[in-house]
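request received
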Amino acid sequence: MLYLIGLGLADHRDISVKGLEIVKKAERVYLEAYTAVLLVDKEQLEAYYGREVIIADREMVESSSDEILADADKVDVAFLVVGDPFSATTHTDFVLRARQNDPPIPTRVLPNASILTGIGCTGLSLYNFGQTVSMVFFTENWKPSSYYDRVKENVGLGLHTLVLVDIKVKEPNLEAMARGRIRYEPPRYMTVAQCAAQMIETEEERGEGVCGREALAVGVARVGAEDQLIRAGTLEELAEVDMGKPLHSLVLVGKRMHEMERDFIRDFAVNKETFDRVWARDYEGKA
Amino acid sequence: MLYLIGLGLADHRDISVKGLEIVKKAERVYLEAYTAVLLVDKEQLEAYYGREVIIADREMVESSSDEILADADKVDVAFLVVGDPFSATTHTDFVLRARQNDPPIPTRVLPNASILTGIGCTGLSLYNFGQTVSMVFFTENWKPSSYYDRVKENVGLGLHTLVLVDIKVKEPNLEAMARGRIRYEPPRYMTVAQCAAQMIETEEERGEGVCGREALAVGVARVGAEDQLIRAGTLEELAEVDMGKPLHSLVLVGKRMHEMERDFIRDFAVNKETFDRVWARDYEGKA
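response:
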């Protein structure tokens, strides 16, 4: 059996009791380590589980999945995913490959907390969210704005948008590569501030009134952890906020917001005066 | 401290290791028992936790929350919620009341799996979902169709819609009430078949082409449990399917679907011929 086990959002103790039992008994244990990170490292997980954990990078999962699936029709293999196995990243293709293997490999998924629902900690109702989008690191010459079209659809309906931000782990160093060597860049995690700044940048390019400087948003960091942090404000304000260690996410709030949602996020406002002014001018009764 | 602890979707062992530690040490433990149910009962939970669990019905949480919050500025109180504390039902108002209490009561949320993300087990990408809606039990004279407007917005964008179905627990018996007595009806859980039938009924009334007999949908039952069941088909087909014990949910699929999503749900088709015919006629390339 191939078990896809969600680890939840914060640390090693967010795994379910059932998931931990499977990890302790499985023949092999892999940790998917390219789409999200826990706030603890591999060594801590190994110490906690009392066994070896094999890091599965993108290449291993997407190209060499035979290695992970080997014998999984006969023995139990645990594949650990930070958050929920089917959420921010879908491991659907991986499960399809297991199903289509010869012999077919039975799979079982243990869901867990995901940022897609953990974002409820902001007090924003999950019923009022539209599509989720991803934000990649812009470069000098590459500032993709396809996310903007989806955000625009949500904004048009007055809905909130969860923006998941980019992380880069195990990115090859291009200079080294040119000299035929493999060296990896240190991991990079996008911050709420960078995300807000990039949204403003796209708005300035596209100009369709989707996510300008004074659009209200909520930034979150380390959801589910003890030092979880929430900050609300205009994108311009959030572009200046330091929210500390990863992982971060951002919600662009929609106009179809209840007063209770407003009350909840107002407590986290960077500046309550700006918040109230923008709220009264652009949001209240505008759904 | 007031801890809101998600229990996950299936049974007592879906709580996180961290959550279980808090439950074992807390001064009092409440179980929110009116918006969702685990597949185990209170007695099993008590045996597993080794302690008393107090059932918190809607009235207690919404009107008598002082009892739950009593002394929670000094002692630890655990409030257990099936699924995730902030997902299908938002306990936002409850947290606001704790915050505004005199003295204010610190709160901490332990997220867990929710049907909002557990629905990823269908292979449908959570990035392609629009707003989530709720379906209530229709009666002879009350068939609210406000959900239809939201589904229509999603359909217009080619997005999937998760439809959460009604459950009725601790509903007073009206005849007994008329005679001044309090007696409760047995709990009722809406099935995928009832939900599909009601959607067809609304479509026949409204006629805006949102969820007719041949719209494709996916029904799920007991997500995350060992006997989890997934069935795909037209609403007409799903209206005839028996998916067994609760809890059920349904997804109306959108036209902006990848081929991989199609492949994944096709394996669960009630009837692959119908599925392929409807897919080719109404969905493929229609986004």
